[in-house]
User: Fold this.
Amino acid sequence: MAAAILTSASGLAWPHGTAQAPVASKAGLNGGVLGLDEAVFWDGGTLAGNVQTAALCDTAAGACPTYKLSIAHGGARLRVGIDSPVRTNTFAVELLDAAGTVLASEDNSNQFNSEAMLLQPAGGVYTVRVRPQSVQQGSYRMRAKLESMLPEDLPRAPGVVPELPNLKVVPPYEFGFIAPLNPLNGLYPPDTINPPLDIAGIHPISCTVDEMAPVALGGGAAKKCLRFTSGPINLGEGLYDMRFDMIGDFIAGTAHLAPQEALSRLVIGPMRQVIHYSDGSTQERSAGTYSFHPIHAHFHDDYVLSFRLYAVHDTASGAMERVGEGTKSGFCPADQLWGDWYSFDQGYEVPGGDEPLGNCTSPANGVMGLSVGWGDVYRWQRPGMYVEFYGQPNGRYVVQSRVDERDAILESNENDNVAYAYVQVENDVVQLLERGWGESPWDPSKTVFAGNGPAQREVLPMQASTPDTGKLMTQSPTEAADGGALPLGLLSLLLMAAGLRRRH
Assistant:
């Protein structure tokens, strides 16, 4: 199998797994031919528009950029994906043949990522069209890969081995001290109708009603909430696959009401983790508890995330003191975010995603979790997304987000479950200084994140393109989600995994 390649703006690429000098790229975006198991990445720039159909492209509704993609013969599947730093912007990705017929399309509605896929594509030149369905000045980036084999067609490894999830964390971001305006912020409203409770710069509260409620009722007794966004990612070889059955558990006597925690865990029962094996078999194991969260109006896998606040006393040595925590009780994740933009291991299995009447609300035979390669975030508007900040002065702080702190979930790696954000707080203004995987900015094994989106671990020089002109260019600023710009700084190329794994 040919090595996958990551193409830079200079047209050079490093084959995965080598330390040799770069070689000329064959990746085909407005240029060469995309070979089997090769990939190409490019920065799409910034768009705005409400283009609901292709007939409205390049009218007052908005522009629809197009890109020429030439691929080799013999591919099993062509994948063209998009990434948006905010899930409130919906882009459609369309793959057209030479006659202008749409062969494959997909959109990222309420997701950060999505991709159009075409099975057994004929070799030749295709057009990739990006249509801003509902975008308010949003940036995006693109990727494409021509696969030689589908994951399900790959030979199995000998023996029977468990394919375990590996849970990691989206490092906290989107910090602030403003509570959401929508009193139903715990349900499934789009982020666009869940704005901050701020009028002319006046924001009287930072905590939601349930967060301020007494601990005896399942609240957090919170007084001043430093709010942020975070969530879990599954970067393992297997599903994060959790099962529950409230009705069956009540019949069996293993579930019970918890009126003493009514605002956070009204019903509590035993959660089960399904372990998937390489031969397709499965096995269940006890994995903590599930609960019904009245404020969110759906079921949670309990204690998936936990939050801590540390005051930094010495910025040189990293000496810090734990001064606060949050009360996040549980999580019901959905496939909305690719955990690794440069990997094509994302699966589309059950449990997969969720919707208002989906897995997270099922009282019987419930399923929740994450497909391989996917993650999710609860944004700052959701109840429980905070650490208590009351009584703390201006200064520098580290906010930690931890996944599976109670070790209820069996993972392939139990030692990479912490992420951090390093912030400066001045009179309710929060400046994010750094975020990444690890305990803190002083962790010698940290992985620093940079860029616009939840899971961007670097800002790379992309193979960028002026649509259909074949002219390559390096785009120096990357547009931030709020329309600002982030300097690229010191740029580096990453190696990209080419291998495919079998998925169930």
About this structure: DSSP finds two helices and 34 strands in the chain. Residues 1-26, 459-504 have pLDDT under 50 and may be disordered. Residues 73 and 123 are 4 Å apart (CA to CA). The radius of gyration is 23 Å.
